[in-house]
Amino acid sequence: MAMRPLRSLLSFEEALKVCLEKTEPIERRESVPLAEAGGRVLCEDITASSDVPAFDRAAMDGYAVLAQDTYQAGTLKPAALEVIETLYAGDLAKKKVGPGTCTEVATGVKLPPGADGVVRVEDTERVGSRVSIRRPIHPGQYVSRRGEDVRRGTVVLRAGNLLTPSRVGVLAAVGRAEAPVYERARVHIIASGEEVVEPGQPLADGRVYNINSYSLAAIVQDTGARATLAGIVADDRASIRRAIEEGLDCDVVVFSAGSSVGERDILVDVMQEVGKVLFHGIAVKPGKPTLFGRVGRTLLFGMPGYPTSCLSNAYMMLVPMLRKMMRLPVRQEERAQASLSTRIVSVTGRHQFYTVRLDDGEALPAFKESGAITSMSEADGYIEIPANVDLVEKGEKVLVRRF
Amino acid sequence: MAMRPLRSLLSFEEALKVCLEKTEPIERRESVPLAEAGGRVLCEDITASSDVPAFDRAAMDGYAVLAQDTYQAGTLKPAALEVIETLYAGDLAKKKVGPGTCTEVATGVKLPPGADGVVRVEDTERVGSRVSIRRPIHPGQYVSRRGEDVRRGTVVLRAGNLLTPSRVGVLAAVGRAEAPVYERARVHIIASGEEVVEPGQPLADGRVYNINSYSLAAIVQDTGARATLAGIVADDRASIRRAIEEGLDCDVVVFSAGSSVGERDILVDVMQEVGKVLFHGIAVKPGKPTLFGRVGRTLLFGMPGYPTSCLSNAYMMLVPMLRKMMRLPVRQEERAQASLSTRIVSVTGRHQFYTVRLDDGEALPAFKESGAITSMSEADGYIEIPANVDLVEKGEKVLVRRF
Domain residues for B368? Predict the structure, then answer.
C-alpha cells in the first residue's frame, strides 16, 4: 500500500474559485407543464401576445353607467337609472348603455358598450328594474383598463427568472400552458470502499453503513437538482473507472471515497486516466482530502469519506456550484446572525467549517469530530472561520448558515 | 342576482388564529426510501440498535501500535517496529499486535487486537517490513472509540425532527434503509367561474385565463405539500358541490372563486350545506372576500378571484397552515430587513399585504392593484402593515418576506 500524503493544499477561497470557474450554467432546455413549473428557471423571455386584461372590465360588483349620469348623485338625492341587462361572469353585453340606463355587472365582466364607469353595489339601492345611485363616479372609475396589467408585446418575464408562484401566475395570465425552462442539474452519487455496506443490510464486523450517498442525495435534492444513486463500488481501478463512466451523462459525479489515502489515490489515478485533476487537497477543516476534476463536460468531486467532511464540502462547494449551474439566485436570507456563546480557537491556515446550535440568538458549538455524523445532525447550521482567523471571541457576531 | 355584500369583517389576526386553531398536524404515516427522505418529518423516535462506530477504529492512516512502544520516540531517535500485517478498508486483523510490532492500517479500519493507538503515516518512515516512528502517542490516540459518535440504545433522532441532509445521514448511520415519516399535506385546487379558461386554450371575448390554480400549485408545492389541480368548474351549486366532494380526501380544498360576490355566495351556500363556514370576510387588503370553512376533517378556503388577493392570502394564511400540518419549523430566516424607500399610507382597519422590490437594502413599493398579477411578479417579497398602522414613514425598517 503506497500511501501518498497530500502535499500542497489549495486555500478554500482558491478551491471554491476553481469550482465555480469550471461550472457552466446548464444550456439544456425543456418544457414543463405549468403546474410543475414552480422553482424552475425560465430559458426564454416571455412576451405577452395579448393585453391583460384583454378588455376594459368592471373592477367591482355593481352597475356599469355613463359617469355623467351620476355627477349630481348624492345620498339625499340619488340618481335613478333603468337596469337594462344583467351580466354574470363571462357574459357579453347584448345592449348598449345609454343616458338614463345601466347594466348590472359582476367584477371582471367586460364593460358594456356605452358605459364608461362602474358604481359599486354598496353605493346603490335596487328596486325592481330601477337602481338608485347614491354616489357620483368619474369616467373610468372602478374599471380595469385593457392592457393595464400587461400590454401586448411587453416582455413580462425574462430568461433567467426564477419561477416564483406569482411568476407562474404571469405565465398563466398570458396563456402559456407550459414553461420553457433550463433543465435541472443531474448529480451521480457513487460510494466506494470495501468496508461500506448499504443501510438495511446486516453489518459485519469491521464494516460501516453508507452514510454519504444519502446525505449527499438530500442536499443535492434540496437545491432542486436531481440525484441518482449508483450504490457502492469496489475499491479497484476498473470498478471505479466504470462507475465514473456510467455517470458521465450527468453534470456532476460525486464520489464519496473510502476513508483511506490509499483508496483516494486510486480515484486520483482514474481521474487522471479519464480526465483531468483540477485540485487535490484543500486547506479546510474538516474536508482536507478533497479531489476535484473534470471528464469532458462532467465535473468530478472526490469527497472525503468522513460524513461531516463530505457534507460540509457539499454545503460549501457543491451547493454553490449546483446553484450556479441552475442559475438560481444567491440566497442571503438563509443566514441568521447570532452571537457566539464561547470563544473558538481555529486552526490557522485552514478554512474551518464549524457546526453550531442556535439558541435565543446565541450560536453554541456543536462540533465533535469529522467522523461523527452527530456533529451535524444536532446542529442548526454552521459558521465559517477563514484560514487567516485563529480566534473568534465569545460574544462576537457570526453569520450562521442554516442546514 | 342577489348580491350580498360582506358585512362584519374579521381582523386578520383573528382570521389567522381561526385558521391555525382548526389546523391539526397530520397523523397519517408512511415509510419512504432514504434517498427520498430529505425535507420530510420523522414520525418516530429513532433509537440506535448498535454503537456507531461499531468498533474501535483507526481515525488516521498509519500504524496501529502499543502506545508504550512509542513513548521514547523522537525525530532524532525514532522507535523501530516490525510491520506484521497490512489492513485495507474493511479488512479484519488476523494477527495480534504485541511489543515491538505494529499493523499498517487505513483510516476506518477496526483496531487490531493488542494495539491501543495509531501513529499517523506522516510521523513515520517505512523501510521494507520495518517502520520508524518519529513521534510518541498516548493510548487511545487517533482511535475513534466504539460508540463515540452514537451509543447503542440512544435516541438519535426524535419524532417531529425535520430530515435535514445530516439527519438523513444519521438514519443511514444506524442502518435504516427507510425513514418513517408523516405524510405530506394534500391540497385540492379548484378554479371556478364561467369566464375562466385554461392557459393554452384560445381566449374568447370577455374571458380570462385561469391564473390562480397555477400560482396556488406553485406555492403549495414550495411548502413541500402535494397539489392536485381539479380544473375549472361551472358556477352552479351542483358542480361546485361535486368538485368539493371530490377533494374531501385531501387535507385542504382551495377554491379560487370567480371574482364576483354572486359566485362567492354560491360557495358560501354549498359550504353551509356540506359543512360549516368558519369565517367569511377579513379586514385585509387585498384579500377581503375570503371564506374559510370545514367539511369533516377537510379545511376549505374560498379565495378571492383576483390573482394578487388569492396569492397574498395563500402566503399569509395557507402557508402557515400547511407548515403546521406538516410540522415544519417556523422559518424566520426568509425575512430580510430593509428600509422603506418611500412613505406608505395604508388603509386603517385593514391588515395590508404590500409587495416590494428589494434594491440594495431598500424596499421599494411594487404594488399596483389586486387585479394585477404583475404587482407580485415584479416584486421580491412583501411587507405586512397591521390594521392599526395607517402610515409607514420613509426610511423605516421593515421586514420583507421573500417570495
Answer: 335-402
